[in-house]
Design brief:
The complex is a heterodimer of chains A (about 400) and B (about 600).
Chain A lengths: L1 E6 L19 E2 L2 E2 H11 L4 E6 L3 H7 L7 E6 L6 H6 L9 E5 L2 E3 L1 H9 L4 E7 L7 E6 L2 E7 L8 E9 L3 H10 L5 H10 L4 E5 L3 E3 L5 H10 L5 E2 L2 E2 L4 E3 L2 E3 L4 E2 L4 E3 L2 E3 L4 E2 L4 E2 L3 E3 L4 E2 L4 E3 L2 E2 L4 E2 L4 E3 L2 E2 L4 E2 L4 E2 L5 E4 L2 E4 L7 E2 L4 E2 L4 E2 L4 E2 L4 E2 L4 E2 L8 E2 L1
Parallel strand pairs in A: 1-4, 1-6, 4-5, 8-12, 14-17, 15-18, 16-19, 17-20, 18-21, 19-22, 20-23, 21-24, 22-25, 23-26, 24-27, 25-28, 26-29, 27-30, 29-34, 30-35, 31-36, 34-37, 35-38, 36-39, 38-40
Antiparallel strand pairs in A: 2-3, 6-11, 7-13, 8-11, 9-10, 9-11, 32-33
Chain B lengths: L2 E6 L4 H12 L6 E8 L1 E8 L2 H7 L7 E7 L14 E2 L5 E6 L5 H10 L11 H10 L5 H10 L5 E7 L6 E6 L4 E4 L4 E4 L11 E4 L5 E4 L4 E4 L5 E2 L4 E2 L15 H7 L1 H9 L3 E2 L4 E2 L3 H7 L5 E6 L1 H18 L3 E5 H4 L9 E7 L5 H12 L3 E6 L5 H5 L2 E4 L12 H20 L5 H23 L1 H11 L4 E6 L3 H16 L2 E6 L17 E4 L6 H13 L4 E6 L11 E5 L7 H19 L18
Parallel strand pairs in B: 18-19, 18-20, 20-21, 21-22, 23-24, 23-25, 25-26, 26-27
Antiparallel strand pairs in B: 1-4, 1-10, 2-3, 2-4, 5-6, 6-7, 7-8, 8-12, 9-10, 9-11, 11-15, 12-13, 13-14, 16-17
Classes of the chains: A alpha/beta (about 400), B alpha/beta (about 600).
């Protein structure tokens, strides 16, 4: 069976991290989200992947140029109109029943296998969720969908759509019908199928995760990193303490006196320490340098980042190529965050989210939940109390 | 250059040989052929694509065979001249890479003895020489005595119908290596040929002969004394050598550069320790008393050497002379207190190897910068540094050029450190920014759409000039070389100050000029040069840093590279030049990975 993976979206709500890469390429435990989807699809018995790409497609194609053991075909969606329109781009590659997935949702292989094995022509993976109103809410009756409501105003129902379906080829006719009327979302197409009295059976997904906002990177990283196991490459000097599952990539050097408590994933070619502390649920990308006496916990540090000495980074995301001066400090606590003119209240601590290629001088402090854009320059001794747009200077 | 392959084992020889030849096609070829022993020796060859040969081969069972891609040196491109070449009784087949210098004399002698020649090639004499002394059951002795009569260079693979369990190979001055498998073995000119099947390799040394069976490998010297050889593991992945998804190898290799720059720096620099680490042998070479440095290379490596001259002189004050290998070999001075740095991507470039031997024989200390561990160059020189850029398949060098520059920059920094000319703050600044280089290159790649626009404009040009001063001068040469070799647009690189001493005569309003402008001491001179050019009508495309706003009033188009890269902005500039050449060639519909008349590693002089 073939599968279609939708990976054309930009992910505006994830800016600044999506300014130079599509949402599906954001890293979780040093692997793009899309790679988790590919891995699960491959292991579930699917033999060909059709990826619908669009926004920054080169980044995807470049990364997966070495992906093995499964045929990958790319189709281009030039305008990002909606999920149904995206799926339609794959039409000519599909001959039979197929599975469609969103490239930005992490899913496990057993759920996909279960979906494939359902005897019914139409099937959907659903998931129980405490706050269903953010998603498409699915009302279930006799293991089939009764109704699907996209982002209801109140919290009704308890199951949400994961956006993962098994569909017959004939669905492309239904999609074309809908898109010709200007309806481009896949859940509207599904509702139209229900209106036509089609029976869509439901399958409960085991684990499914969505990344919508920048802070989700921290939480999804925390969830996924739990299943990593210890493996040490590189050079680890005498006097380094490592507890729990710590993954160290090749050519990485960890200097004496450093204290690392897993689960922690460290990429290739990094230099860490001496006397640096890295605490659970932290991912550090490739070629990063963490100088002496810095402490990092529950954070995602991406590739090519320099963090100078005596810094404290907690519950934060640091984008690729950042240069952070000494005594940088994030304040992390529960907070309300402003994003896209909305205010989101978080129930977990949150530090700073810093876009790519910023230069932050020494002794800078960030308030909880601030988002700093890409390529910003922040002078020393500044306290960042609100979001900083990309390519700006804080003097 | 010619590529040879030999297979003995359990698989279908047809499939293995064709597959392997396709992996060698980057070496450039005009005809190809295979010989397979399926009870009888059967030979298939054709002019043009390997696929033309593939079509001819019927279902055939043999598991022993040899194959060849030919790049004509002796005799025209014809089916007869394609390899393998056969003995009179058509039982012995030979494939050969190299040049037999005394072939005319040998051919005349053999003709007198009654041997009949079918082709005009030098190779055919080898087949007849072997035939002349061959006694059944002892192919390797016949090969040894045939090779004794030969002057020149060779890498050969030989099979004989009467000995279906044996594959014989030999080399002198042309590359040949053994791929060690389980129940199968390979002979090839280069690793990618068999990398799909095995990553265990034995490098043959000068004058060695090997006899392979399905499950044994014996290597002998010229006197047939057996030699113990060490196996090496190749860490390249077969995927490294495939273009997976990209339109061309060249584009894939351009996009590889953030990663290959990382690789060139890995394990060599440490930000925490503020140090540069080299192997002891290399450090000793650099720490000796150096009166001068000579850099010897060919083609793109020569331009990397010119960039190296600016880097080393700037950091160490030691005079550096850059020489073309094919010239250095016969001319110029030798100085025992000078260090000769030889740059060769493949480690097998014949001109460069000859120059390296010449330098060594004259008592100079020698250091090689190469991409291939175990290559001939690494075994001749006193020390070597690997550029660690992985296999490069596109004929136009891209990622190997940037890695060579990085390696030369590290050499410059190391010498400067050893001579106490570099303070620790300065060193830290260098190391810090070197680590940042991959990001800067990535930023250039992220904006390639601007370059595509300029390429559309350049595609109809008859001729393009590239100009720059200082370190940007060799980049102008490299930019022009890239453009001409893959897009066939005539291009020349000049030192900007030299335009008025001649080249202006060629400048018309139809000659676009690409000017590399960096904010250094030559900035205003460059603006003046652009003014001189504009006065004669051509459009000027400037390559300038992000923060340079002044340039916009001088140039017609501006391509940008990121500011804040005080160390080696030349790498970002190089990537722009590579993308420019690539997109012009693509617009013009050129065969980018296999430009006409060119070969990847030139193993003839």
């Amino acid at each position: 069976m073939k599968s279609v993976i939708l990976a054309a979206g930009e992910g505006k709500r994830l800016r600044p991290f999506t300014e130079t890469m599509p949402k599906v390429m954001l890293p979780v435990a040093n692997k793009p989200v899309l790679e988790y989807v590919f891995d699960a699809v491959k292991k579930s018995g699917i033999d060909e992947i059709i990826v619908v790409v669009g926004y920054k497609k080169e980044v995807i194609m470049d990364y997966f140029k070495d992906y093995e053991d499964i045929k990958i075909t790319y189709v281009n969606q030039t305008k990002q109109l909606g999920t149904a329109h995206a799926l339609l781009q794959a039409k000519k590659h599909i001959k039979d029943s197929f599975v469609v997935l969103a490239g930005d949702n992490i899913i496990d292989q057993t759920s996909i296998s279960k979906l494939i094995k359902t005897p019914s022509d139409y099937a959907i993976l659903i998931k129980e969720h405490p706050y269903p109103s953010k998603y498409g809410v699915v009302f279930v009756e006799n293991n089939g969908i009764k109704r699907i409501v996209e982002k209801p105003k109140e919290d009704v129902g308890k199951y949400i759509s994961t956006g993962i379906y098994k569909l017959p080829r004939s669905v492309f006719n239904d999609i074309e019908e809908c898109t010709s009327q200007g309806v481009h979302s896949l859940s509207s197409v599904i509702q139209s199928l229900l209106d036509k009295k089609k029976n869509i059976s439901t399958v409960l997904a085991k684990s499914w995760m969505d990344i919508v906002y920048p802070w989700d990177l921290i939480y999804v990283n925390e969830a996924m990193i739990q299943s990593t196991s210890a493996s040490a490459g590189g050079v680890i000097e005498k006097g380094v303490t490592m507890k729990g599952a710590v993954t160290v990539g090749k050519d990485t050097k960890i200097y004496s006196g450093s204290y690392i408590v897993g689960p922690v994933v460290i990429g290739e070619g990094c230099e860490i320490g001496p006397n640096a502390c890295i605490f659970p649920s932290t991912t550090i990308g490739n070629n990063a340098v963490i100088h002496p006496f810095s402490e990092i916990r529950s954070s995602v540090i991406m590739d090519d980042v320099h963090i100078a000495s005596n810094s404290f980074i907690s519950h934060s995301v640091v984008g690729r190529g950042n240069t952070i001066g000494n005594n940088f400090s994030t304040i992390a606590r529960k907070s309300t965050i402003e994003i896209e003119d909305e205010f989101k209240k978080l129930n977990m601590p949150i530090g700073a989210m810093i876009g790519e290629d910023c230069v932050i001088e020494s002794h800078v402090v960030t308030e909880p939940g601030v988002i700093i854009g890409r390529k910003c320059k922040i002078n020393s001794l500044k306290r960042i109390i609100k979001n900083v747009p990309s390519e700006s200077k804080v003097m | 250059m010619c590529g040879i392959i030999g297979y003995i084992g359990f698989r279908d020889a047809k499939g293995v040989l064709i597959e392997s030849l396709k992996k060698l096609d980057y070496r450039g070829y005009d005809s190809a052929g295979v010989g397979i022993v399926d009870k009888k020796l059967k030979v298939f060859k054709e002019v043009g694509e390997i696929a033309n040969v593939e079509k001819q081969i019927p279902q055939i069972k043999g598991t022993l065979g040899v194959g060849h891609t030919r790049w004509a040196t002796h005799g025209a491109v014809t089916k007869e001249n394609a390899h393998p070449h056969l003995s009179c009784d058509k039982k012995i087949a030979v494939v050969h890479n190299g040049i037999i210098e005394n072939f005319q004399k040998l051919r005349d002698e053999l003709k007198k003895k009654g041997h009949k020649f079918i082709s005009q090639t030098d190779t055919e004499v080898i087949a007849h020489l072997i035939d002349d002394v061959y006694k059944k059951g002892n192919l390797e002795d016949a090969v040894v005595s045939a090779l004794k009569k030969i002057e020149g260079s060779y890498a050969i693979a030989v099979v004989c119908e009467d000995e279906p369990g044996k594959l014989v190979g030999a080399r002198k001055e042309s590359p040949l290596l053994i791929g060690v498998g389980d129940n199968e073995n390979f002979l090839a000119s280069d690793i990618p040929a068999f990398l799909k099947y095995t990553n265990r390799v034995i490098y043959l040394d000068e004058g060695e002969i090997c006899v392979l069976t399905k499950n044994s490998i014996k290597v002998f010297d010229k006197k047939k004394k057996e030699i113990k050889k060490k196996e090496e593991m190749i860490t390249w992945d077969v995927k490294d050598a495939e273009k997976s998804g990209f339109d061309h190898f060249m584009l894939k290799e351009i996009y590889d550069q953030p990663d290959t720059v990382h690789q060139a720096l890995r394990g060599r620099i440490s930000e925490i320790e503020n140090s540069i680490e080299f192997p002891d042998r290399v450090e000793k070479l650099l720490n000796s008393n150096l009166s001068s440095i000579q850099i010897v290379a060919c083609g793109t490596s020569f331009y990397a050497g010119l960039v190296g001259k600016y880097l080393i002189e700037n950091l160490t004050n030691i005079p550096v002379f850059v020489e073309l290998a094919s010239e250095y070999r016969y001319f110029g001075t030798r100085n025992e207190s000078s260090l000769v740095i030889v740059i060769t991507q493949s480690g097998e470039t014949a001109d460069t190897l000859a120059a390296l031997r010449e330098a060594k024989n004259s008592g100079c200390r020698t250091l090689v910068v190469t991409n291939v561990i175990g290559s001939t160059a690494t075994r001749i020189a006193d020390g070597y540094l690997l550029q660690q850029s992985g296999p490069e398949i596109g004929v136009a060098a891209t990622k190997t050029f940037t890695s060579q520059i990085i390696t030369l920059c590290l050499i410059a920094l190391k010498i400067s450190l050893l001579k106490n000319k570099l303070g620790s703050d300065e060193l830290y600044n260098y190391i810090f920014h070197l680590k940042d280089l991959p990001r800067k290159i990535q930023q250039v790649l992220d904006r390639s759409d601007e370059i595509e626009k300029i390429a559309k404009y350049l595609k109809d040009a008859q001729s393009v000039f590239f100009i720059g001063r200082g370190i940007n001068y060799p980049l102008s040469l490299e930019g022009a070389l890239k453009l001409k070799e893959i897009s066939y647009v005539h291009a020349e690189g000049f030192a900007a100050g030299e335009l008025k001493h001649g080249p202006f005569a060629l400048l018309t309003k139809h000659t676009p000029v690409v000017a590399i402008v960096t904010k250094d001491s030559t900035y205003y001179k460059m603006l003046a040069n652009i003014g001189e050019v504009k006065a004669r009508g051509p459009k000027v495309i400037a390559i300038a840093e992000d923060k340079d706003t002044e340039i916009e009033s001088h140039a017609d188009f501006v391509l940008r590279f990121p500011s804040d890269s005080p160390v080696l902005p030349c790498l970002s500039i190089t990537v722009i030049l590579q993308l420019l050449a690539y997109h012009v060639a693509k617009e013009r519909g050129c065969p980018i990975d296999k430009p006409r008349n060119l070969a990847k590693s030139v193993t003839v002089e």
